[in-house]
């Protein structure tokens, strides 16, 4: 279809019309969390007002409606990402999803002598669970190094896939550098060596068309709040053979078929990993978010954000003393930068007074910042609902702030 009218699209997001410190809000922190269109807020509101009940257990009308809404969201997500609904475990987000792989897949399998290969550019959510597994199994965590551009050298990466490597944990898109990794080629290489692959899709699913089946990984994790959905939602996609072999991570209601004190029979499929009452309204919201994104068209979203990235990069490069981290040829609309002589937190604090929201700090990626030898950065991250005028306003604010701090 034709590209959306982006000014109209922006008007779908109520929060974007507010002011901060008397200035129009310029929200450039979507890599941290995304804003929500009215369609998502309204879907959750309507669900609570009209259809709310618990899922699965009740045969009454509301129970049936709630179950259909929850399972409908699973089906919507599965179609969106080209996977089977019965391979999609709904959970609270990427952090839960990666810990589920760590505790249910890796912990029972890995042992001393095994290696978990983790990329340099991972978010802590894709590092710490592997360190916990390593501590308990005697396996070790090894780093897959990056180039100064913030990419992987394919030969070096291939060489790091030694026979002791049992699992590779890699992000699809870096939350600090914006690098889009060629996960399809990387997973093919890993799988050909018998290495199980875990892809962190947190920063990919909200910003580009993602076809998990085409990537060919073993596990793919993502989080709802960065893709127009509510907090506390996300999912783990896993190959069916893995799900079938994995013991449950949490026990409780919803995940069982039969319980007696002699033993318990678990549900098949993803429900085995969904103990307890889930975030039902949250997944109704996430389903609405997917409908909304599909209405825009992910290819249009990707193109829109590529234009914003080019503008933002150009605008920042034109300012004296600005250094941008990473220069991958394929990037999402994320720019981490430093300004000579200014602390990242001071920059972000003063930018906020101009109405501009950027994140400062280490972005849950200490090892990556250590690689670049920097203590903290500012990160500006755009989404399709941002405008080119906002990029100009951000650049003007940064020039002003830089003069104040110099
Ligand atoms: N991985 C990446 C690449 C991320 O950007 C984030 C969120 N900052 C996470 C994992 C963690 O996501 P969540 O906090 O929603 O579990």
Characterization of the model:
GO terms for molecular function: cysteine desulfurase activity. Its cofactor is pyridoxal 5'-phosphate. Keywords: Pyridoxal phosphate, Transferase. It is an enzyme of class 2 (transferase). By secondary structure, this protein is α/β, with parallel strands linked by helices. The protein has two domains: 6-30 and 297-405, Aspartate Aminotransferase, domain 1, CATH 3.90.1150; 42-294, Type I PLP-dependent aspartate aminotransferase-like (Major domain) (Aspartate Aminotransferase, domain 2, 3-Layer(aba) Sandwich). It contains 14 helices and 17 strands. The chain has a seven-stranded mixed beta sheet, with helices on both faces. Strands 13-14-17-16 form a four-stranded antiparallel beta sheet, with helices on one face. Helix 5 (128-137) links the parallel strand 5 and strand 6 (140-144). The radius of gyration is 22 Å and the shape is globular. The structure holds 4'-deoxy-4'-aminopyridoxal-5'-phosphate (PMP). Residues 93-95, 123, 125-126, 171, 175, 200, 202-203, 223, 225, 364 line the site of 4'-deoxy-4'-aminopyridoxal-5'-phosphate.
């Amino acid at each position: 279809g034709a590209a959306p009218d982006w000014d109209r699209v922006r008007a779908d997001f109520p929060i974007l019309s507010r002011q901060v410190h008397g200035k129009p809000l310029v929200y450039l922190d979507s890599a941290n969390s995304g804003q929500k269109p009215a369609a998502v807020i309204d879907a959750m509101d309507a669900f609570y007002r009209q259809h709310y009940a618990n899922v699965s257990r009740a045969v009454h009308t509301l129970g049936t409606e709630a179950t259909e809404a929850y399972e409908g969201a699973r089906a919507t997500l599965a179609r969106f990402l080209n996977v089977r609904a019965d391979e999609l475990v709904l959970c609270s987000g990427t952090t839960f999803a990666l810990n589920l792989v760590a505790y249910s897949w890796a912990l029972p399998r890995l042992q001393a002598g095994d290696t978990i290969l983790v990329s340099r550019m991972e978010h802590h959510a894709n590092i710490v669970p592997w360190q916990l597994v390593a501590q308990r199994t005697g396996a070790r965590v090894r780093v897959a190094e990056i180039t100064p551009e913030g990419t992987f050298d394919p030969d070096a990466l291939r060489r790091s896939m030694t026979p002791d490597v049992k699992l590779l944990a890699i992000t699809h898109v870096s939350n600090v550098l914006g690098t889009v990794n060629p996960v399809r080629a990387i997973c093919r290489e890993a799988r050909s060596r018998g290495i199980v692959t875990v892809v962190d899709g947190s920063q990919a699913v909200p910003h580009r068309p993602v076809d998990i089946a085409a990537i060919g990984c073993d596990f793919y994790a993502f989080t709802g709040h960065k893709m127009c959905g509510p907090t506390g939602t996300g999912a783990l996609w896993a190959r069916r053979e893995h799900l079938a072999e994995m013991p449950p991570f949490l026990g409780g209601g919803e995940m069982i078929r039969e319980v007696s004190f002699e033993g318990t029979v678990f549900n098949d499929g993803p429900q085995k990993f969904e103990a307890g009452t889930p975030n039902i309204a949250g997944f109704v919201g996430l389903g609405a978010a997917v409908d909304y994104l599909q209405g825009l068209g992910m290819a249009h979203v990707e193109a829109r954000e590529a234009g914003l990235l080019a503008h933002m990069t150009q605008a920042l490069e034109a300012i004296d003393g600005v250094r941008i981290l990473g220069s991958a040829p394929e990037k999402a609309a994320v720019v981490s930068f430093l300004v000579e002589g200014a602390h990242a937190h001071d920059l972000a604090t003063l930018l906020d007074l101009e109405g501009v929201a950027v994140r400062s700090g280490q972005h849950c990626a200490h090892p990556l910042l250590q690689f670049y030898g920097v203590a903290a950065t500012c990160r500006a991250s755009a989404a399709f609902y941002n405008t080119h005028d906002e990029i100009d306003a951000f650049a003007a604010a940064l020039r002003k702030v830089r003069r104040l701090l110099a």
